[in-house]
Amino acid sequence: MENLKLFTSYFAELNEKEFSDLEALFHPMNIKKMDHVLTEGTFVKDLYFFNKGTFRVYHLKEGEEFTTKFLFSPCIYAELFSIRKLTPTFFNIQALTDCDCYKANFREIEKLMETSQNISRLFLKLYEHIYIKGKKREFSFILDSQTKRYNNLIAENPQIIDQIPLQYIASCIGVKPETLSRIRKKSNEI
């Protein structure tokens, strides 16, 4: 779990014991390409560490899938709304590539946070990071054109074109696949 150590170091420095205590809470999951890590309607009690792979988060409405984000490893994901409100999750998380996933019970993570100021700082900074990324996406849908949303997505994640089907990219930026084709054609002409 070297990637977990690398990932957590972006947010806080943990000593060996703190990292060892955190790492011990994570248990492997058997998830293959196109499998779901999480499905809407389930009650979430775990936090996920994606050690290897690419994932999409989406919602299904009236038979249509709406992709809200992509997750690139290494990263941690927590469905906080479901955990905190004790309600079923609204989202699905699907592996788009071969992956290596782990989960940890959220309450156990919280207990560890109570005993370690550094682990508490780690999750505070991580949640802050997630909040800022969410706000950035929200502002983009209000302020940016579809083309700018596409170009920003590609600039932030150049590997996306090779790893993610175009219909998911279209959904993520809020356009139909045919509109994405026109946007891509126009972007390639520049």
UniProtKB/TrEMBL annotation:
Domain of life: Bacteria
Residue span(s) of domain Cyclic nucleotide-binding: 10-130
PROSITE patterns: CNMP_BINDING_3
Protein name: Crp/Fnr family transcriptional regulator
InterPro entries: cNMP-bd_dom (IPR000595), cNMP-bd_dom_sf (IPR018490), RmlC-like_jellyroll (IPR014710)
Pfam families for this protein: cNMP_binding
Signal peptide from the UniProt entry: none
